[in-house]
Amino acid sequence: MGEKNMYENKKILVLGAAKSGIAICKLLAGRNNDITLSDIKELKEDDRRELENLGIKLVIGENQVSLINESWDLIVKNPAIMYTSELVTKINSKKIRLENEMEIAYHFLPEDITIIGVTGSNGKTTTTTIIYELLKRMKKNVVLGGNIGTPLAELVSKVESKSILLLEISDHQLVDFQDFKTDISVLTNVCPTHLDYHGTYDHYKNTKKNIFNHHSGNSIAIINKKDRDSLEITESILSQKIYFNDNDIYFDETGIYIHQKRILDLCDIKLKGIHNYENILSALLVVERFGLDEKIIKDFFQEFGGVEHRLEYVRNVNDVLFYNDSKATNPTATITALKTFKKPILLILGGMERNQDFNELNDYLGYVKEIFAIGTVTKRVKAYADERKISCHECYTLKSALEEIVTYMKSGDVVLLSTASASQDQYQKFEDRGNEFKNFVAKL
Fold first, then answer.
1. Are residues 95 and 231 in the same domain?
2. Among residues 63, 192, 290, 395, which one has the fewest Cβ atoms lying within 10 Å of its Cβ?
3. Nearest to 118 by CA among 249, 205, 208, 207
4. 139: how many CB neighbours lie within 10 A of its CB?
5. What is the pTM of this model?
6. Number of domains the chain is built from
7. Domain span at residue 66?
C-alpha cells in the first residue's frame, strides 16, 4: 500500500480486456503512463471509446506473444492466463515485471484500512457474502469486491480511511501475488481443483497459501481444523491461527457454537447443509473481530437463503424439488450437495473435461437413482455410472438432460444440477449454466 509512484511514467502492457483489465487501465491512466491493452476479441463499443479517450492504445489479435519485448516496464496479466503459458514464459525470459490487477490496486489503498481476504476450494463466495451482510447490518464501513464481482482497481476510489475492505480471492489471483497482504485471511478448505491451470495439486495448495503472504503474529488466519490439507499448508505460517471445526468453535445437530456458546439454533438457520454451517462458522470468526451482535446474527440467518447457483433451491414442481448447484465445478462441491439430501436424486453430472476424478463421489451416491450426463465428459460419466451400476442417460446438453428428466421424475424426488465439472465447454461461465436450468424449471 502507499507506493503509487511504482506505477507512474511507465510503458505498460495489459493482457486481457475483461473487467479487471479495463479497470486497471482506468486506474493507471493519467499518471504519465504509456498503456496498451491487448485482447483476442473486440471490445464493446462503449469500453473502446472510453479507453481511447483516456489515451490507451488497443491491440486486438490472437498473437499476443509477438507483443512481448524488452520495451515494457510492466505487464499486467489477466488471472485466466496460465502461469505456464507461452506468454508468461516469454515475459519471464525477458525479465519483465509481471503483476495482476489486484496486486497493483493494493498499492493505491489507504494505509489504515483493514483488509479481509477469503479463499478456498469451496464456500468462499457464501462465506464472503455472509461476512459482508453482517458487517453492513452492524453499520460498519465495508467495501466488497475481488473475485465476487467488482475488480479491486475499480474500488480504490471508494475505499476510505479506516474502512474495511472485504475481498473474495481466487487461486488465479493468488498465483501472482507479491506485496499483497491481508490483515485477516480465511481459508475455507482445500481440495484438488483447477489442476488444468496449476498442473499439480502441490502447486495449487502452495498458491492457496499465498492468502497468508507477509503475515505476522498481528495477522489473523482462520482455518478449517477438520481439513487436512488446510492444516498442512498453514503449519509454517506466522499468523495468529484461529480454528473452526474444533472443540471450541463448531456445530452439532442443535446449533452453531462460538467458544462453546450456542450463538444460533439450527432451526433458526434458513441455509442448510454441513458445508454451509462451516461457512457460517468461518464467517462468524471474522465478524467476531468487530463485535458479535446475536440479535443481528439471528435475524439475518432466519432470512438468508444462500448465494445464487450454490445449492440454490429453485422450485417445487408436483413434490419434486429442483436445486441449482451450478457452482459445483469439482467433485468435492458435488459431494457437499449429495450429502445434503436424504431423498431419491436425479443427478445432472458432467461438463468440461478437466481430468476430474468422479470416483471421489463413490461413497456419496446412495440416494442417486439416475444420472444424466452432459458436456464433453458425457462418455466418461456414462462409463463411470455403469461401473457404479447406476442408470445413466447420455444427454450431452443441459437442455436434453432436463427434457429427459421430466419423463423420469416422480413425487418425492430431487432434481440436482451439481456437475462436478466446469462449464466452459458449452457456457462462458457457470452462472449461464445455472440460469438455463432455472429458466427451464420456471416453465414447468
1. no
2. 63
3. 208
4. 9
5. 0.82
6. 3
7. 4-99
